[in-house]
Amino acid sequence: MTNKWESYANGTSWWGARKRAKAIDFVPNVATWITGCRKEGGVPGFRNTYAGLPFDKKVLGVCVGGNHVESQWFKNVPPQDLELIRCLRGEWVHFAKKYNK
Questions:
Q1: What pLDDT, in 10s, does the model give residues 60-91?
Q2: How far is the C-alpha of 63 from the C-alpha of 12, rounded, in Å?
Q3: The pTM is what?
Q4: With contact defined as beta carbons under 8 Å apart, do 99 and 30 qualify?
């Protein structure tokens, strides 16, 4: 049996899995992620800070209440979209319309 530190180190724990999450490009992927969240009954949201400190050129997409929808890191977010995330609530509606093809 492994202890909690071993499972963290080899990525089998919840925290270890999250630690290794990779960021994907924002523009080609955000609409698909939003659609998946909404289909599972969730409400998508985006975070660009934690404890008042900004993330370094990334945003975290969080699906609140969605079954089986993982949070997702996004990179290469256009500056105008980053400003919307910082200033608005419900910005996912704008992104779904803007990037849905």
A1: 999 999 888 889 999 999 999 999 999 989 99
A2: 22
A3: 0.77
A4: yes
